[in-house]
Design goal:
It contains 2 helices and no strands. With about 70 residues, the chain is mainly alpha-helical. The protein has one domain: Aminopeptidase.
Length: about 70
């Protein structure tokens, strides 16, 4: 999953978790067996959310980028 944004007025109401669950169900229905989420380590709230949603950091992956 790449972008997950909830309007600040609707946060802490289960909206993000419901969106993730719906995405997981859809992908599972298509035969997906693994879902990845790109999470910035510096965003503690995002790390906490994805951890609470059952996702764990994959120590075998490193993301490479190049700014031009």
């Amino acid at each position: 999953m790449y972008r997950l944004v909830v309007d600040p007025c609707a946060r802490r109401q289960g909206v993000a978790l419901a969106l993730v669950a719906a995405g997981e169900q859809r992908l599972a229905g298509l035969g997906c067996q693994r879902i990845g989420a790109l999470v910035t380590d510096a965003h503690d709230h995002a790390v906490g959310f994805w951890s609470a949603a059952g996702y764990t950091a994959d120590p075998t992956l490193t993301r490479y980028v190049k700014m031009l």
